[in-house]
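A reminder from the course coordinator: this example appears on the midterm review sheet, so study it carefully.

Given structure:
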């Protein structure tokens, strides 16, 4: 089973650039998870008849949003975090809005596992959303994945807006304490690892240079001066089912590149 995840930074833009459909036709994912759709259902017309579409759009038009395109019909699809988990961890509106209204989490249940795609809130340049990330969002999302895991294994993927270790960005020393590489954000990701979830790319690739996002400034992508902030994570019981995990920096159209996971199902 082939799963892909891609922050497209505007699905209408990648359609207009004629990169989405050719990418799907070439890679043939069974499940494609998308982040930052920046569109409402019906605003992006995609000619992929083999795929069932599920959207979780932000209330604010042209902002955030997730989607799942799947060849396999899910048992069910759930939008957003559960209310009790949001209440427990204080996932509420801040000066930038309510993350629960931004289409950031979408879950599809299948026979053997759950698939969850997430577009994690950005901490902002001035770190004004770091409290939301550290105290509320990251622990709430982890709690959700752990709750699902009580029923069956979980695959979760997307843009986590954090480089986990110094190996996950080209210039770690100059970015310590900046958004995407604060101690708080890194601890939030480490909590997934401590809970037993596996960063699948690190099963196959060591060291640095494996990046999924590049700034549009200064030819960073051509020079591979980037960050790895997009991940596929799996429950530990799926370790033996993971056949491969990779990134695809040659796929253009967004400031992020797709990431992939192949499971033995």
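Designed residues:
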């Amino acid at each position: 089973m082939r799963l892909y995840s891609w922050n497209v930074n505007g699905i209408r833009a990648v359609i207009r650039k004629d990169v989405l459909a050719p990418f799907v036709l070439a890679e043939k994912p069974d499940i494609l998870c998308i982040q930052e759709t920046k569109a409402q259902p019906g605003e992006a017309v995609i000619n992929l008849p083999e795929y069932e579409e599920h959207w979780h759009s932000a209330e604010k038009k042209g902002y955030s949003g997730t989607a799942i395109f799947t060849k396999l019909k899910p048992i069910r699809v759930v939008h957003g975090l559960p209310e009790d988990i949001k209440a427990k961890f204080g996932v509420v509106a801040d000066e930038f809005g309510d993350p629960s209204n931004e289409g950031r989490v979408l879950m599809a249940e299948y026979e053997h596992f759950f698939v969850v795609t997430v577009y994690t809130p950005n901490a902002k340049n001035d770190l004004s959303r770091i409290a939301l990330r550290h105290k509320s969002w990251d622990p709430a999302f982890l709690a959700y994945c752990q709750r699902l895991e009580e029923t069956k294994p979980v695959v979760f993927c997307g843009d986590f807006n954090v480089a986990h270790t110094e190996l996950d960005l080209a210039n770690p020393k100059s970015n310590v304490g900046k958004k995407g590489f604060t101690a708080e954000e890194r601890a939030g990701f480490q909590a997934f690892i401590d809970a037993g979830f596996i960063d699948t790319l690190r099963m196959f690739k060591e060291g640095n240079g494996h990046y999924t996002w590049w700034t549009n400034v200064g030819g960073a992508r051509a020079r591979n001066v980037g960050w790895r902030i997009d991940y596929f994570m799996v429950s530990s019981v799926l370790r033996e089912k993971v056949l491969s995990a990779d990134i695809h920096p040659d796929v253009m159209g967004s400031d992020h590149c797709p990431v992939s996971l192949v499971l033995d199902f």
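Residues 155 and 234 are 4 Å apart (CA to CA). DSSP finds six helices and twelve strands in the chain.
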